[in-house]
Design goal:
A 4-stranded mixed sheet has the order 2-1-3-4, covered by helices on one side. It is of the alpha+beta class and 191 residues long. A hairpin with a 2-residue loop joins strand 3 and strand 4. The model has no long low-confidence stretch (mean pLDDT 97). The longest helix has 17 residues. Helix 1 crosses helix 7, helix 4 packs parallel to helix 7 and helix 6 crosses helix 8. Bound molecules: glutathione (GSH). The site of glutathione has 12 residues, from helix 1 and helix 3.
Length: 191
C-alpha cells in the first residue's frame, strides 16, 4: 500500500493527489500539520516538506519526481504523450514552473506588483492552450496536473480573474469534469 504524506491546502500535494486519482491508485493518507510540523517528517524528507510518497522502504519527496515515478509504476492511463518531443515539451513546462510560482507566491505575500507578472505567466499558458485542449496535446497529462492546483488557488484564494485568458479559463472548465479535479475543487471549497 502506498502512503502519501499530505496536506489539504498544499498545491504540490494536490499535484500528486490528482495523478493518483487519474490512475485509480489506492493509497493511505497521513495528514501533516504544516503549521506545526512533526519532527518525523524530516526523516521522510530532509527538507521537511510535503508531499512525500512511501511504499515500504521506498520514500520519495518532490511532487514532480513523485508524479514521474507514478507514471512509470502505473503506466495506465498514460499521462505523457507517446511522442518524445511532446513529452519533452511537457517536462520543460514543469521544469520552468517557477516562472509561475514566483509571482504567485509573491502575490500571496501581498506584493501587489506581482499581479502583473502573474498575469503575464497566465497569458503564456493561455497562448499554449489556444490550440490543444490540454497542455501537452489532446489528453490530460502530468503538465496539466502540475499547473492546475495553482490556477484553481489563484482564482479562489487570490481573486485572480481568468476572463482575460479565455483559453486558460476553458481549460480549467474542461478539467473540472474530471473526478480527480472535482475532488480538488471540493477540497478547496472546504478550506
Ligand atoms: N519542491 C517541493 C515543494 C513542496 C512544498 O513546498 N511543500 C510545502 C507545502 S505546499 C511545504 O511542505 N512547506 C513546508 C516548508 O516549506 O517548510 C515539491 O514539489 O514537492
Amino acid at each position: 500500500m502506498l502512503t502519501l504524506y499530505d496536506a489539504d491546502r498544499c498545491p504540490y500535494c494536490a499535484r500528486v493527489r490528482i495523478v493518483l486519482a487519474e490512475k485509480g491508485v489506492q493509497y493511505e493518507t497521513v495528514i501533516v500539520d504544516l503549521g506545526d510540523r512533526p519532527a518525523w517528517i524530516y526523516e521522510k524528507n530532509p527538507l521537511g516538506k510535503v508531499p512525500v510518497l512511501e511504499e515500504g522502504d521506498f520514500v520519495l519527496p518532490e511532487s514532480a519526481v513523485i508524479n514521474e515515478y507514478l507514471e512509470e509504476r502505473y503506466p495506465e492511463p498514460p499521462l505523457w504523450p507517446s511522442d518524445p518531443a511532446e513529452r519533452a515539451a511537457g517536462r520543460l513546462l514543469i521544469h520552468r514552473f517557477d516562472e509561475l510560482s514566483r509571482p504567485y507566491y509573491a502575490l500571496r505575500r501581498g506584493e501587489e506588483s506581482a499581479r502583473q507578472r502573474l498575469d503575464e505567466e497566465l497569458g503564456r499558458l493561455d497562448s499554449l492552450l489556444a490550440g490543444p485542449p490540454f497542455l501537452t496535446g489532446s489528453e490530460f497529462g502530468l503538465a496539466d496536473a502540475a499547473y492546475l492546483p495553482w490556477i484553481l488557488r489563484a482564482e479562489t484564494m487570490l481573486g485572480v480573474d481568468l476572463d482575460a485568458h479565455p483559453a486558460l479559463a476553458d481549460w480549467v472548465e474542461r478539467t473540472r469534469d474530471r473526478p480527480s479535479v472535482a475532488a480538488e475543487t471540493a477540497l478547496l471549497a472546504a478550506l
